[in-house]
Amino acid sequence: MAQRRNLLIGIAAIVIILVIAFVVTTGPSATSGYSAGTGAIATPMLITDPPQVPNGTQSLVIAYSSVMAHVTGGTGSGWVNATGNGTVNLLSTVNTSKVIGYANISANSTVNLVRFNITSATITINGTSYNMSVPNGQLTVAVRSGSKISATTGVLVSITPVVATVYTNNSVKFILAPAARAAVVGNVSGSERTRLGASVNIGASDRAELDSAAPNITITSASVATSGNTTTLSVTVADNSNTSAVLRTLTVRGSLNTSVSAVAGVNASVAGNVNADLGGVDKAQLGSSENALADIGMRIRSYGSLTFLIASNGTIAMPSGEAEFEGGGYTLAPGSSATLNFSGVLGYNSGIYQVRPVSGSQYQIAVIGQEDSFASTSVTAS
Fold first, then answer.
1. Integer angstrom CA distances of residue 363 from 61, 223, 254, 255, 337
2. Angle (deg, nearest 10), helices 288-303 and 268-278
3. How many CA atoms lie within 13 A of 85 on its CB side?
4. Is 236 exposed, middle or buried, given 0-12, 13-18 or 19+ CB atoms closer than 10 A?
5. Are 86 and 63 in contact (CB under 8 A)?
6. CB-hemisphere CA count at 13 Å for 171?
7. Most distant CA pair in the chain: distance in Å?
8. Nearest Cα to 18, choosing from 110, 99, 119?
9. Distance CA 242, CA 221 (A)
10. How buried is residue 173: exposed, middle or buried, by Cβ count under 10 Å (0-12/13-18/19+)?
11. What are φ and ψ of residue 209, in 5° steps?
């Protein structure tokens, strides 16, 4: 966890510490026979730590509802609804957590699944707010076996949404792609357990318990190189745990150069004007269409973030739409390693925008998979 906290905004995980339950709209219903009975314990849900976000991000607000937990043992088994829905700014939870809900569960029960739904998300970058697409907003998260429910326990759910930017039709689209894991932790006590929005400190032992719920992956080697318009990226990932890790996304963050090519209806004259503007020419010299193209190019530079999706065969590619974030991923077997490679022109919007890393600049590379498996490293581009 120390690595994530040092990286903070940009390469840190979002940790949702649900000290019990989160939503869903599929699968068994909430009327599956569970009753907490006499002496039920109000178990809180909390959220903590930031996601990976583009440069200049000021807030990332998610709306949540329909929180549920699946309970076994105690007075029975089944799904239970949690009290609490609303919104939370994930960037306001650095080094702390906030209560976003709670559910009544009998003592000595076990929570083995949590479900939740991210109904919408909004990101604010450099003073401008954008609605985000959430293609995988419905999540069911397995809870690592641990302590039974008591007056001081809760379920911590770590959810690591990658904020990806897709540039298409001369516009920017932001996509939230989450992964999650969960564990039962202790030392959650006091009146704030049922006070929505209350801040709760999370101890090192609780974070360690949550960390142990995810496959242990590391990046053993990585390189970024650029030659002309061609970018070469190579990242080797190892699974050091006893369970498989499904790798879904790879992010590269750092300085980016952009240019507009004379393709797809953009003639050489327009491309030349836009590229001159990206080099520092006063935008007042450009026409409206050229100005719009230059705006996108400068946003790409400003955000400084590239997202690649990892396919089942281990290849990586930049996404062109939100549908590509549904499913997929490369399964890395326990004790094995895989090298993810890309070589070609990084392009957006049918190749109009070409992106290149800057030789000699430093880049943060992160790989994120199912169950919130996470690894990162820093490299200098050649």
1. 26, 9, 5, 8, 22
2. 50
3. 15
4. middle
5. yes
6. 6
7. 76
8. 99
9. 21
10. middle
11. -65, -40
Element (H, E) at 290: helix 288-303
What share of the chain has pLDDT > 70, as a percent? 85
pLDDT classification of 51: cutoffs 50, 70, 90: low
**286-300, pLDDT tens digit by residue?**
777 788 888 888 888
* DSSP H or E segment with residue 141: strand 138-144
Could you tell me the domains of the chain? 2-211 (no CATH), 217-255+304-380 (2.60.40.10), 260-297 (no CATH)
Distance separating alpha carbons of residues 357 and 201, to the nearest angstrom: 39
CA angle in degrees (0–180, nearest 5) for 79-84-85: 105
Which of 164, 135, 187, 155 is closest to 326 using CA atoms? Answer: 135
Instruction: Measure the CA–CA gap between 330 and 314, rounded to whole angstroms.
Output: 6
φ/ψ region of 299 (left if φ > 0, alpha if ψ in -120 to 50, else beta) reads alpha
Burial label, 81 (beta-carbon count in 10 A; 0-12, 13-18, 19+): middle
Per cent of the chain over pLDDT 90 is 26
pLDDT digits (tens, 9 = 90+) for 339-348: 999 999 998 8
Contact, 285 vs 129, CB < 8 A? no
Token readout for 26 is: 């599929």
By CB atoms closer than 10 A (0-12, 13-18, 19+), residue 320 is middle
Q: Which residues contact 170 (CB under 8 A, 6 or more apart)?
A: 292, 293, 296, 349
Q: Are strands 138-144 and 180-185 parallel, antiparallel or unpaired?
A: parallel
